[in-house]
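Table S2 (text version). Query chain:
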Amino acid sequence: WNNDQGWIACGGNDGLLKVLKLENNITGSLAHGNTSAPSQLSMNQTLEGHQGPVLVATWNKHHHKLTTSDGNGLIIVWILYKGMWYEEMINNRNKSVVTDMQWNKDGQKICIIYEDGAVILGSVDGNRIWGKEVKNTQLLHVQWSPNGKFLLFGTGTGELQLFDNQGVFVVCFIGIVTCCDWYPDLKYKLSNYCDPHGNSKLAALDWYDGSRGYIEQNIPCLAICYENGKLQIMRDDKDTKPALIDTNMRSIKIKWNATGSVLAVSGLQLIRNSQGEEKEACVVQFWSPMGQFLRSLKVPGTCITSISWEYDGLRIALAVDSFIYFANTRPDYKWSFFAHDVVVYAYHKPEMFESTVVFWNTKTNDRHTRNIKKLLMITSANDHCLIVSGSDDGSQHVLTVYNAIGIPIETKCIDFEPKFASVSKTHVFIASADIILHWQFKALAISKISALDGKHKTVCFIKLNALISRIILQVIPTKDCITCIASSDSVLMVVRQSGVLYQYSVPSVTLDNKYTLNFHPVSIALNSNSTRVSLLDATGILKLFDLEKRAGAAGNIIDTFERKDVWDVRWASDDPEQFAIMEKTRLYVFRNMDPESPINCSGYICDFRDMQVKTISLDDIMKDTDSIVKDAVVHIETKALRELRTILSQNGVLNAVQFVDDRPHPRLWKIVAEAALEILDFAQAQKAFIRCQDYQGLQFIKSLKKFDDPAKQKAEIAAYCNQFEAAEKMYIDMDRKDLAIDLRVRMGDWFRVVQLIKGGGGCDDQLLEKAWNHIGDYYYDKQRWAQAVTYYSQGKNYSRLAECYYILEDYASLEKIAIGLSENNALLKSIANKFVLVGLCDQAVAIYVKIGEIASAVNTCVMLNQWNTAVQLAEIHNFKEIDSVLAKYAAYLLSQNRKWEAVELYRKANYCQKSARLLFELAKDAIESEQTVMQIKKIYVLAALEVERYHSISKANRGMHHETVYGLLAEDSATMGDHKFLDNAWHGAEAYHFYILAQRQFYNGDRESALVTALHLREYEDIIDAKVIFSLIALISFHSKRYNTCSKAFVKLEALEASSLEAEKSFESLALDIFTKYKPIDPKGITVSCTNCMNKIKDSDTACAHCHITFPTCIVSGRPIVESIHFMCHICKHRAMEHEISGMVCCPLVSVVSWQDCSLLKPLTC
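Corresponding structure-token output:
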């Protein structure tokens, strides 16, 4: 079966080869989700070319090709052209028979194996890539690995041989469990499941290619089956712990479905009939990748020779004798239905290992999604849904109870792997093979957990807090495993593999009854009053079991009832005698075990209440998971409901009353009451409401009698019967738009209210604003904030507008709202708090000032570290507490050694001297910790800038009445003990600037300028270590051949007090080596004229020896400035020669740092 286009290739004897295609026409029955197999073919083409029996056929879905081979070894490649299949290529090796052919996943390569051991790998265009002979081996099967890197061959002796895609042998493993051992050269071991004699022939081999993803990570996908019925499912060729299965069949064929989630295994199996006779029958078994048995299907005929899946996995084709049977498969989707309208279902995409769980409200079309890893099962009851999943590390499993919009409300972890789950209104039951966990998740102050098994009659309660990571009870392992459970608010039913049915009472979880069944159900369900149980086995046989003694019941099994081919059962939630089943592609509704006429349907039953079955087409939803499938949910009325509507339309209310008297039901009486109301027969309507116990309906009749106008009565009745459009039309026809508006207000249809008002409804502005606000609430609840803003603006709902703007992060609009509100509006404080939460200090402060809360404004500035603003507020509003707050915070920061934050605090509060002093301390710390010289220079520059700012603020405030700021500066000055740094703030920055400049000039080759700059460092011995300074001078002067200067530097180095004796000797030795070779003489330098006295001086002299005038130093080059015209920085007041600084954009001393660089306020680590 071509999984892409739907073509079916059929090969038979005498060269018979056909290509079939099923018609895709949709009949009216498909409105109920019918997916039954079409009965006619849209194409039936016979392909001629083979003479012998066609044994192998394989599709290339990517290139739309069919490859077939017959018993004579002839291989033909067929291609589709204009809707017909034509022969493209022929090949015949004329030596042996082709036993198997497989295309790789992308359809580029095909592997062909022959019975005599020959292997050929070809390309899609017909070229041979390589070929080889596997000597003395009968090859039967071949499979590509999912990644296309390996080929797995199955032999006639049961061996499996693995080759890479270049034909190089990798490993061989034997299919005999008793003989399996370590291969000495390959170091590889694998246990295959075979009979002890090792003579079983390989029957089938299938390796899922992963083209449509995996249902979970590391899922088994390689299936190997032997003629003795043993089946092995592995994760890959290296899996040493495969799932081992005995199918009890022979003549086996296997095939994975298109998603690798179900393995179909067909063969002949001995089945015992009702007379006790055993007879072989064709059976198809369905297994999960983990080796769990799912279902079996008995097929007429003598032998199944081939099986194949449809692309979507909803049908399977079986070649039986000379027939092809098509069977519908109903996937066991992870889904459930609860809260009257909510469908929760899970799906996974090929690119994801997580499962996507969707909570879909079928009434409102709202969808909420969650991604869950290792999803195991979904079940629900009433208003809650339980999802069971595995933890990330696999050590535990997680139980999560969700509400109708997908929000988790309770979560618990357990230490064993659950296989079954059931939920009631307040309880959760989880079962493994031998443990049942009972969790009352609702209506108890302390949750409790209990565990039980077949050997324990008592219940062990343990508080959940005491449960850490151990088994609830140490249960003795048993082979009589649990096969299914079901629960209600009062009963828990447990079935074991032996057919024993246990009945426990809830919530005490005590054993009430124990029944023995001659039946092995895999699914059970309780009716609405817990008096009857439906039992469904793996072959689709449905039986009923009475928990109460009834006449005609033998052993409580109802012998008169049995249905076959059932795959879904649902009890009515409001009638214990009604239930609905899905039997093949037909829906049956039973009342008192009497079936109604079947309805063609293949949907899954969601709900059965009010004599109406609700089904959902999960197959269609899973095909298109990204969008809402139209008409996926179908409501099917029961026969009684349909007949009642017919009687009402043809015979009237009186006959309908007689009809309902014979089969009373609240839904039927409700319909009769509504029909009586429509003809204004209040007496019959009142009787019907009494019969269905509808007090609200009786009150409605009383209200109707108050109207004197029959037209108004009919309009109200239409509204009561949910015929709102008709009711509105009646009011408008009566020229009573006010009543039409009132109707829509009662309905909560505010969109229509606005339309009616705009159409001339004639109402006040207050109602219109109310309508706008309700529409805004509609979008607000859906988290569509932008649309909500539009309607809240029209409704003047400033409170909700503020919320929406805050969520949308539209702070400008939020600020506009605050500006437009009056000072006494309570909303202002809420808006201010919102600004504080997002760090918008100025906006928050403006609002606090507007409402007169100065203390809150100052506290906001303090919290957001805006001390400058805080000081300004304190000055303007005479707020005295700011000093103590700042002092405490600064002391706290210093106690935590957070000096950089303290610097920022002092700076923002205009405590300039304190910030400068801290910066000088940080510079000293940086020197001691041997940080980079550039970092040290930056800190000194920052300190100097703070001193300059101190002088600027002092000058600006001198003579002015800025009491607060001036007071802070005065206090700052008064508390500082050492003021030396205020007089020469740039001293440290100059030292490291010249130190860096000298080295930069030296390494750039400008040695003369480097020496001039280095000589300036003699004035900074208080900042830089003298040893460092004179070592640098000695180094530069030596390379500049100024040996006299170098000699003086060595004299200084030898005379340093801090130098050790060893250092002095090393200096003396180095000086001796230098000056025995070079005389301590400096060459004559360049001379220039003094601008004051015009005498000649050296260009490196910083003062004139004749007139004793001092020249300023160029901050760019380090040379003295003798020119009268030069540049002076307005920040640091340092000078530079015009030709030196002309290529720069700012002063080189100050440009290394800016206070806007926030990263400098962090501890330096460079």
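Notes on Table S2: The CA atoms of residues 157 and 745 lie 81 Å apart. The first helix runs from residue 618 to 623.
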